Amino acid sequence: MDARVPAFHLPASLPLREGAGSHHSPARPSAASDEPCEQPGVETSLGIPDLTAAQVAAVAERLRESGAGLRSVPVEERIAAIDRVAAHWLAPASQWRQVALEKLPLLTGYPAAAVEIALDRLWRALRAPDLTATVRAESAKTEDGGRGGRITGMIDARAALSPAGGQAPRLAVHLLAGNVPGVGVFGMIAALLAGVPSLVKTARREPLLPALVARSLADEDPRLGQALAVLHWRGGDTGLDAAALAHADVVLAYGRAQTMRELRAYRRPRLLAFGPRLSVGLIAREAADRAGAEGAALEVALFDQQGCLSPQLLLLEESDPATGDRFTDALAAALARLAVELPRAPLSLAESTAAWKFVETQRWRAQEGEPVRVEADATGGFAVVCDRSGNPAPSPLNRHVVVAPLPALAAAAPLLAPLAGLIEAVGYAGPEHRLGEAAAIAAACGAHRLCPLDRMQAPPFAWRQSGYARIASLAGVAPTRTPSAGTVA
Amino acid sequence: MSFDNPPATDNGGLAVAARVRAFITGASSEDFEALALAAHAHQYGANPPYRRFVDRIGAGQPRTWRDIPAVPAVAFRTTALACGPAARVYESSGTTEGPSRRARHHVPDPELYRAAALAGFRRAVLPAGTRRPFILAAPERTSHPTSSLGEMVSWLREAHDSGRAPSYLVAGSLDIAGLTGALDRSDPTRPVLLLAITSALLHLADHARRSRRHWRLPRGSLVLDTGGCKGYVEDLPRAAILARYGEVLGVEPKQVVNEYGMTEMCSQLYARALGPLHAPPWVRTVVCDPATGDEQRQGEAGVLRHFDLANLGSVIAIQTDDVGRQVEGGIEFIGRATGADPRGCSLLLAR
């Protein structure tokens, strides 16, 4: 591999001159702000074109013409090609995998071990059986809704011949976030399956993986590559943003609430907003043991609670008052081990300060007699706060987790009520016969996913992220905000 | 227990209070270190929550002022950290973190606060005995009875204001017509002190731009501002703020003094023009790494830890989450930490 890895993808025969300056996006944040700064000695030279608004517009226009070509590839063939790409990526010798493992730790600050887990979880979710099942499930649901095969019409050119065939969006613009490697890839795959061309704008912190995904798909089947462009420009460059959005029929946006507000102001393209959310763990007394704590610890540590599926609060059913203490100890011990095996990404000064303030506040509460116990790393690496006040403190992220002991699982519902609408997933650990209780709690707080606690950040492709049906929502015909809690995914 | 012989609090407290007061008013040339250690010993004996804190962290007897355990400023939100009954309780405005999370500073001896506020002002702004007409757009004791800034402003007026104009900050909002009227009326031969919260002057600058107006403060005038961009739409760098003041008031940067203070602290730091903040001799400020608590090297950003002898009635050592860096000759204030945005789609509820 060249030292300079192209971090973009364009449909063939649409060349762009690569920028003169290589792009450095190092991991270590600057002292004074959230902005990254140069980290001496760690240069991840990526090839990224310098773009003008006119070029972005030209790419978008080309993509808008590529939908028919994409849909002429039968969906089974698209699924088979994606499945072969997934198999490549999962093979240890895969060149794509090796480049990602080499570069992503430098870009994101996450250790190679975390990137490896991210890649494995991502590509295992993109195998043919799951893709086929999701296409079928979402098409069936839409048809049941009496909207007459619009999804199948979009997905497959053959079905489009039917009178009920709908008109597909001509371009999806994806605005990605850089918090977790691979975030946004499900959306890219969904668009390919829906027969919708995609223009993907990558995040400053992680411009590489989406480009590698697109390039690997194009390598496997150039017809897929013709319907994809992956580019990077600085977020907030209004000229380039506007050029992309002006051509979009649907926008998939990931990230901060501010980003979502700004996009809503554009009004015209339909917005699928994957805005900020949090996840919680629910641990039945039968699972309140060391294994449960270790499963929870991995999900807390992996990606430093930067994802919407990362647990911030663990609701623990106690059989006796010692359960909470034992679980807290086991969780802290597991986080201490993970601090070595899976080191945290470097924090900005603002992040460190927020973490310090959180820990000191909880320690002060404990000192002054509140029912709070703090197990924190001496150097600020992580903290477990066992909080019996009935009003658990919010986590500052970055491996700071709150355990709220409960007398019974059912007591979780009122505790989560203030967070209703903000919870993406409920991770459950406990016996299967109590899954119904967990499902009721997940449904009551409006979670979109109920899953095993130790698989919280390993979502299946069918996950209704932020409540949107994975494929059908691209067409705008599916019920988009139906919570799917109650099924373990 | 960290001390073999906790001091008898009453007599010890009175004695150290007299020494601190003399040091602050310039009547003694005692050593900061000796006073800080004496103040800490007094507080360990007389301030139960502080004693619990010192014991909890297992701090030994401090050998230098730098070793004195600093309480996190957040503790002032929930706990009365005082060495005895409070004569006044000052509250933060709650604009940064919401009214339910106000800091409360219980001050047993407001006279010491007054002495520090006046002595600090006289070192950085106007010398003792000098009076100027004040033009005011800041809280006062009457309008903001629980504001420590309001209290300080009232003391400054009593000692240094040659006029009696009202403050144009009324019920938390700016009386722009009143303020512009006062600027119109100012006597060009008599230098004024324009004392205002920063956001009020930025609103004045916006108003001036819209109405195409500007003023020229009388020669020798000073602008004293405080509070940063809190309450203004934009977070402007200091240079931009000074440029706006120059545009609207005709003042050079050297005529502008910035005050840094906090409810939890009786003393203030001052900066002139684009220079760093200077602490008076009874205050030491160090910059720390929030993760480890260790002091940062010069130039490296961190969180500010203050040691303020005027806080004798509460806690002299306070660990803030204000961000700054030690530079040649003082502290460069970078900002108030309000929590960092997550890098993507995680939701941060802690602020």
User: Beta-strand percentage of chain A?
Assistant: 5-15%
Beta-strand segment tally of chain B? 14
Strand tally of chain A, please? 14
Strand order of the largest sheet of chain A: 10-11-12-9-8-13-14
Which class best fits the helix and strand makeup of chain B? alpha/beta
Distance between the termini of chain B: 35 Å
> What is the helix fraction of residues of chain A, given as a range?
40-55%
Helix content of chain B: 25-40%
The chain pair forming the largest interface, with residue counts per chain, is: A-B, 51 and 35 residues
Radius of gyration of chain B: 21 Å
Indicate the proportion of strand residues of chain B. 15-25%
The description of the largest β-sheet of chain A is: 7 strands, mixed
What does this molecule look like?
The complex is a heterodimer of chains A (489) and B (351). Chain A is of the alpha/beta class. Chain A is built from 19 helices and 14 strands. Chain A has helices at residues 53-64, 67-71, 75-90, 95-108, 112-124, 128-144, 150-155, 157-160, 185-194, 209-220, 222-225, 238-246, 257-264, 290-301, 322-341, 349-367, 412-416, 435-444, 472-475, and strands spanning 5-6, 46-47, 172-175, 198-201, 228-231, 250-254, 270-274, 278-283, 311-317, 372-376, 383-387, 400-406, 423-429, 449-452. In chain A, β13, α18 (435-444) and β14 (449-452) form a beta-alpha-beta unit. In chain A, α1 (53-64) runs parallel beside α12, α4 crosses α5 (112-124) and α14 (290-301) crosses α15 (322-341). The radius of gyration of chain A is 23 Å and the shape is globular. Chain B is an alpha/beta fold and 351 residues long. Helices cover 30% and strands 20% of the residues of chain B. In chain B, strands 1, 11, 12, 13 and 14 form a five-stranded mixed beta sheet that branches. A five-stranded mixed beta sheet of chain B has the order 4-7-8-9-10, with helices on both faces. In chain B, a hairpin with a 2-residue loop joins β13 (317-327) and β14 (330-336). The chains are: A alpha/beta (489), B alpha/beta (351). Chains A and B meet through α16 of A and α3, β12 and β13 of B.
